[in-house]
Specification:
The complex is a heterodimer of chains A (96) and B (577).
Chain A (H helix, E strand, L loop, with lengths): L6 E7 L4 H17 L4 E7 L4 H6 L7 E6 L4 E4 L5 H8 L2 H4 L1
Parallel strand pairs in A: 1-2
Antiparallel strand pairs in A: 1-3, 3-4
Chain B lengths: L13 E2 L6 H4 L4 E2 L3 E6 L5 H15 L4 E5 L4 H8 L6 H4 L4 E5 L7 E2 L6 H14 L3 E5 L1 H5 L5 H17 L3 E7 L4 H6 L3 H7 L2 E10 L2 E11 L9 E6 L2 E4 L16 E2 L4 H6 L4 E2 L3 E6 L5 H14 L4 E5 L4 H9 L6 H6 L2 E5 L7 H15 L3 E5 L3 H4 L3 H18 L2 E7 L2 H5 L8 H4 L2 E10 L2 E11 L9 E6 L2 E6 L1 E3 L2 E3 L1 H79 L10
Parallel strand pairs in B: 3-8, 3-9, 4-5, 4-7, 7-8, 15-19, 15-20, 16-17, 16-18, 18-19
Antiparallel strand pairs in B: 1-2, 9-10, 10-11, 11-12, 13-14, 20-21, 21-22, 22-23, 24-25
Helix pairs in contact in B: 14-16
The chains are: A alpha+beta (96), B alpha/beta (577).
Chain lengths: 96, 577
Amino acid sequence: MTRRPRFKFRLFVAGDTQNSAQALANLTALCRAYLPNRHDIEVVDVLREPKRAIAENIFLTPTVVKLGPSPMRKIVGTLNQTQAVLQALGLGILAA
Amino acid sequence: MRCIRFPLLGSRTKAPTGIIGFDQITGGGLPRGRTTLLEGGPGSGKTIFALQFLVHGARYCKEPGIFVAFEETSNRIVANAEAFGWKLQELRRKRLFFLDAQPSPDLIQSGNFDLSGMLAALEAQIKEMGARRIVFDALDIVLALLPDPAAIRREVYRLHEWLLAGELTGLITAKAGGDEASSINQEPFGFMQFMVDCAVILNHGVVQGVSQRNLRVQKYRGSSFDEHESPFLIGKSGFEVAGARTLGHVYAAVANERVSSGVKRLDTMLGGGYYRGASVLITGFPGTAKTTLCGAFAEAACRRGERTMFVSFDSDFSEVIRNLASVGIRLDRYVKSGLLRIVSVRTITGNAETYLLRIKTYAREHRARCLVIDPVSTLSSSANDLTAHSVAERLIDWSKSDGTTLVCTSLVDEMSSRTGGVSPLQISTLADTWIHLNYLAQAGERNRGLSIIKSRGTAHSNQVRELILSDAGVTLTDTYTAGGEVLMGTLRWEKESAERGANDAAEVAGKLKRVRLDAEEAELEVRVKSLQTELVAKQVEKTLLARTTESRKRELSRGRTRIRELRGADAAMPGRK
């Protein structure tokens, strides 16, 4: 078994609004299902850290940024369409 | 762009935009602390309007602003705006902040999302710089990403609530079809129009082949406003709206100063020239030297060193120079020195409103104190009569408020002259001085006549003068009135020379008579002299005669004595001798 890369995510949320809470739940579930033990999720609350949103050009919440492995990807929304999200993250094969 | 104060309208409720005309229409600007929706088709000038609103606030009203760019990148916006001379780089960071919020093209969307992240970020930025104004440019771009109309509605409400809570003066721009009716039904703008406190629609259309930009304030809660479409222009210094002047506007100080018309005799007729800041109308048939009078005025103004602008609607720049040079009016040197600006506008394109705005802009740029528009009647031919009249009205209104001395010409055709010589724009009622030029066709020639129909506030001559053009310039001469008939040109000349001839003849005859009398007098004198001489001769003769008589007598008596002696008469009678 080849050594598979570790996935790093940064999730920008706006407090505990419905969309943000859903996105966090969906991302966590997805990672558990498809990337067990090889993922990191950092949650940034833009209400508490607005400067980071400006610095990283995040204006729509929730947004998840896949920092690694490259290429970097940004996905906006609650992440409830699992197939599309997996495709976007380059995990399409795993889902099939 | 000055922060214009409106003495009659509390500016505490309004945020001036610095857009010429728009602040007048709305009585002071956009609603302060409220949200305005600015709609318009592509290329209608939304971004420029929005940016100018922010720049004005940041520079002149101590109201820093934030520009949220959803469509164009901030760098491109700044670069595009450089052409207007707004010096955005200077304002950036401290007083003007650009937020690049363009969704990246490879953005993947999955499920619902909202704008609260952006609003939180903006809130931090607002606190930091104390922003009072905010623009969301092309909000439709980000709304299009939302999955359903309900989400769009929700986000618009969120934005609106957020703006109100922050007491920011907000301006949201959104694309809309050029057609107004369609934009109302179009989600999400339909309900946005209901939600916002002020809605402005920009329209860019083509009317009879002429591009026309119009602005209309559709609604403005809690304020009166000019609800009609107003033409606007994107000029060199930004947005300009042709606005009606509001009441309470103060004109420039009325001057008693006179400025020369460039024709000495005309100045005399007007009692010293035109008033400074007056509007002068010169009407006349084609070829009655209207342009020449304008040229004379322009030349005189330049000679005084006043900045002057000459707008010609029917001749090219070089044609104006050449044609006027043929009557001794040399303008080329003033053009070279930059004192005079000649603007030629093609009659074929553009509409009256745009012309007016352009003329205003050019005049402002040139800082013109004297303005010539030749002919102003072009304005009526390029728009319908209704708007043309208001254009003429506004032209005069504007020149007055600026203290600019305006000389404009108006073509009168033969037809309208029969109905009383009314100029088509009815500008004649508005003008302060109205000079009419006409032809007098007589004895096979046409001669130009000039008369002053009215001149407010000045005594003026009621005489018709003959206008003569020569390579030395314009001269006015008295016409010859004989038997209730006005004579001009050759007839006048003939009459004058005949009179001169008669005078000469009379003079010669008089001289002749005098000479003859002199001769007669001389003759008489001579006769007197000769008679006197004769008289003397006679007297001499008489004396001589007397003397001879005496001597003869004596001789005789002596002879008698002798005879007596000889006869020996005695010496008696000694007493007898």
